[in-house]
Write a structure and sequence with these properties.
Blueprint (H helix, E strand, L loop, with lengths): L1 H68 L3 E2 L6 H14 L6 E5 L6 E4 L7 E5 H6 L2 H16 L2 H28 L2 H10 L4 H41 L2 H13 L5 H5 L17 H5 L6 H9 L4 E2 L1 H12 L8 H4 L4 E2 L13 H15 L3 E4 L5 E4 L7 E3 L6 E3 L6 E2 L1 H7 L5 H8 L1 E5 L7 E4 L5 E4 L7 E3 L6 E5 L1
Parallel strand pairs: 2-4, 12-16
Antiparallel strand pairs: 1-2, 3-4, 5-6, 7-8, 9-10, 11-12, 13-14, 15-16
């Protein structure tokens, strides 16, 4: 595995060096067009400076920017225990030192991406639609794919590749727009300043036009191979290629509902599937990802055993090529027997239940509070609802907002009055109970510190801890 990661890094560094050379050449050419050889060196320095600044921003704040532009919300285990457990499983299988943070994107289109520049700030973000439409094995395949991007250090290199591509596009766009919109007098002035040579204008212009195209092709070369490699690593982690294949098929079918994901050009290359790619050959031409049908076909060919060798054979067969994109040392690694489907994945939810769960997940990610009335009506209150009570429109029952405050345990009340050992008083005062009204729907309540706590339908635990003040809260059904 480490040889595979090193080979992955070498290829990435080579492509990054080519992109860096293209950036420097573009900066020099644009500067030369404006002020001759002196302007060329100034343009080179400016281009390099822009790249350094963007790289620093990408390294120290890139993850936060990506998550913010995706409107991703950090969740705790109680919000979706199944997702948390799957991420924890894949973290252990991948032997990562730190648990990635888990985010939910309030969008209906099924998709996911990983980000991070250091092991301590790695993050995995999934859409609400993904959680609502995939069963456990399919969700595990997607998480394993994103965990493989983290394991293979893809998230760091893709962040830098995107930064360099953005710098090249920025410089090219400024020069081309200035050249065509500055007018004939300005173009003559540029010609005089660079020595009255038509080539001094023509060459930078051509370079400014083709540089983003070349950089985009290099970017595709980086990202497309990495998607295949992440798929190969994912099936080794899960031992179940059918899960990832089925997940990609569902993601492909749900691509048409991903208008908001499609418009996010910053994060689009990082998703497990390009939101703009619908599965057709035409949509795959301008995509940052390989054709999704090819990826599915490769995974479907894996049966009996899974590993790098079997994946390489399936890849060569589907793509009609003899070129190995996986290093020879990795091809010698052990193959694993394909496991059976998990019992939790045998009964898919009906479409109405899926739609309802996706809607509730989106609202929960946006800090809505849920009140389950005894008549069966579920009230959904926005975070800016500021009234202390709300009335059920069906049975007219009045509820406190949100749902109910926690009641202190009897032992805690007695300790607060001074009974018992003083050393035990502080401990018992930090224990509270909350009686759950329904285990089949979202439910919300406020901690004593005022923090809103969400319990999902999948939460089966008997206690949680407030992520704001840290107190233990016992949950009773």
């Amino acid at each position: 595995m480490w040889e595979l990661i090193r080979a992955n890094k070498r290829k990435s560094m080579m492509l990054m060096a080519i992109m860096a050379a293209l950036l420097i050449a573009l900066g020099y050419a644009v500067g030369y067009a404006y002020a001759g050889s002196i302007g060329g060196f100034i343009g080179l320095i400016i281009a390099f400076g822009i790249w350094v600044v963007q790289s620093l921003v990408a390294y120290f704040a890139g993850t936060k920017i990506l998550l913010a532009t995706s409107h991703a919300r950090l969740i705790e285990k109680e919000a979706h225990p199944q997702l948390y457990n799957i991420v924890e499983e894949m973290k252990i299988a991948a032997n990562l030192p730190h648990m990635p943070k888990i985010y939910i994107i309030p969008e209906q289109a099924p998709n996911a991406f990983a980000s991070g520049t250091t092991p301590k700030n790695y993050a995995i973000a999934v859409t609400a639609g993904l959680l609502g439409k995939l069963n456990r094995d399919e969700l595990q395949g997607v998480i394993a794919h994103e965990m493989s991007h983290i394991l293979n250090r893809d998230v760091l290199f893709m962040t830098y590749a995107a930064t360099m591509l953005g710098t090249i596009v920025l410089i090219s766009d400024i020069y081309v727009r200035t050249f065509f919109y500055a007018g004939a007098s300005s173009r003559r002035r540029y010609s005089k300043s660079s020595g009255s040579n038509v080539y001094s204008i023509l060459i930078p212009l051509v370079l400014a036009i083709i540089s983003p195209i070349i950089a985009q092709i290099l970017y595709f070369a980086i990202s497309r191979k990495r998607e295949y490699l992440a798929d190969a690593c994912a099936v080794r982690l899960t031992r179940y290629p059918a899960g990832l294949a089925s997940a990609l098929e569902k993601i492909s079918r749900g691509a048409r509902s991903g208008a908001d994901l499609d418009n996010n050009k910053i994060v689009r290359p990082l998703y497990i599937s390009d939101p703009k790619q619908t599965g057709s050959a035409l949509s795959s031409l301008g995509s940052t990802h390989p054709p999704i049908q090819n990826r599915i076909a490769i995974l479907q060919r894996l049966s009996g055993s899974v590993g790098f060798s079997s994946y390489q054979r399936a890849y060569s067969k589907v793509n009609s090529t003899k070129c190995n994109f996986i290093p020879a040392s990795a091809l010698k690694e052990k193959e694993f027997k394909v496991r059976q489907a998990s019992a939790e994945s045998e009964k898919p939810l009906d479409s109405k239940t899926q739609t309802r769960q996706i809607g509730d997940m989106i609202l929960a990610a946006n800090s809505f509070a849920f009140i389950q009335c005894q008549c069966g009506m579920k009230l959904k209150l926005p975070p800016n609802y500021n009234k202390p009570q709300v009335q059920c429109p069906r049975c007219k029952t009045v509820h406190s907002v949100p749902v109910a405050e926690m009641s202190a345990m009897l032992a805690g009340l007695n300790a607060a009055k001074g009974k018992g050992n003083p050393s035990q008083t502080a401990a018992t005062q930090k224990k509270y109970t909350y009686k759950r009204r329904s285990s089949g729907s979202w439910e919300s309540f406020k901690c004593k510190c005022g923090n809103l706590i969400q319990l999902s339908p999948a939460f089966k635990g008997n206690h949680i801890s407030c992520n704001s003040c840290g107190i233990r809260i016992d949950i009773k059904s």
